[in-house]
Amino acid sequence: MTYCLGILVRQGLVLAADSRTNAGVDYISSYPKLFDFSVPQERALIICTSGNLSITQAVVYTLERDLKVDATPNLHKLPTLYSVARYIGSQIRAMQDADRPWLEKDHIDYQCSFLLGGQVGEESPGLFLIYSQGNCIRATAETPFLQIGETKYGKPILDRTMRYDTPLELAAKSALLSIDSTMRSNLSVGPPITMVLYEQGSLEIRHRLLLQAGDPYLMGMRKHWELSLREAASRMPDIEWNYESPPEAPTYSDLEEQ
Amino acid sequence: MTYCLGILVRQGLVLAADSRTNAGVDYISSYPKLFDFSVPQERALIICTSGNLSITQAVVYTLERDLKVDATPNLHKLPTLYSVARYIGSQIRAMQDADRPWLEKDHIDYQCSFLLGGQVGEESPGLFLIYSQGNCIRATAETPFLQIGETKYGKPILDRTMRYDTPLELAAKSALLSIDSTMRSNLSVGPPITMVLYEQGSLEIRHRLLLQAGDPYLMGMRKHWELSLREAASRMPDIEWNYESPPEAPTYSDLEEQ
């Protein structure tokens, strides 16, 4: 499994990914899932991948190849972030066309999904989720984060803390907490964690983080978080147990008698 | 969807459930999913249900009917909590036998699962998860909570706060937070919330809670929690961005050249 997330706030973007890949619990490996295709001063482009590894690797490969042979279109020529998202979608479709019939025969999951975050020239920063079918949605001020892969464990912390006005550094901390919550609850998501922070208008990735398993910051963060949650739970007002007798509603057996 | 959880700590037990049932997002109703079959001074028995509503209702019905006609076995005659769990499992199997072929024909999900928490006579309190197949597992000191239904959103808070030595009242607060996190992130889990707290050795349920949507305690709890999480995230030590240049590893296109 994989967990990647992107957060779009007024001050910029955060994208983060774990690095665990598994084919069953007995074959677990580590692969990069966050790719930087930025051209400093011109465009910031970060891509995260989730799903069938052979498909996502093949798509990233074609993105790189198109750059190398200076194909049109490619990641560095397209004029808007949306057109970049559609172009990635078309590469996903091409790979699904090529491989899906063979994977389907053996009931192998061929689904994949991508996050694309960045900024192209004068445009505002943007964040897209590109589906296995090649279509895409974008993050908005009302829904400032997007997730792919094993998304459920890490969603509550984002739901509780993320707003479009959240400071960028706090968004990065919440992203780490969201990934750590997922790693804590699901063994198939694991370190190293990679994360980038992008400041709106900078057209350059200036903040990158790579956290290995057992990194002191990760351990410290986890301890701080667990203590804070326990403290916050203890500080909740006492429960007023309000319901002293069992429900008065007829039971199923009562109903049968009527 | 449904979310129910049980927590077993040294001081006793907490069981809690939401009340939403849906057949698609356009048919959402409210049903009780937590049932009290206790006989004060003799045995405490709480059951929570999840999954196909016609199956879980039918199983609860047969449990009630067996009590009414004084069948052997029934919930009040069995000598141990484990034997009660196996008896519930056998009723699940009977209902699956009766209905599953008809449900399967129309690809209707026939799965269900049950939580059983309580204490029978001199035994220690126990907590069981009974599967759709009729078999069961029990909570232990190492894994002091069990969940059924939509379990992922509410698991991180339990992973971070629950130990076997956690005070009972704190376990109840964490259970509410776990359900509230799930409701916040997934519309198909919803109020009213029902919860019971059982003190080890009391052989009687003395604390019951019913929280309707919009209950002031629920709203206050949610606000307190969101503020606490945001505060705790802000108080995290600043991230030391440690990774100033893109990875040195060869890209896929480089590899092709070799």
UniProtKB/TrEMBL annotation, chains A, B:
GO terms for cellular component: proteasome core complex. InterPro entries: Ntn_hydrolases_N, Proteasome_sua/b, UCP009120_prtse. It comes from the Bacteria. One of its GO terms (biological process) is proteolysis involved in protein catabolic process. CDD domains: proteasome_beta_bacterial (cd03765). This is Peptidase.
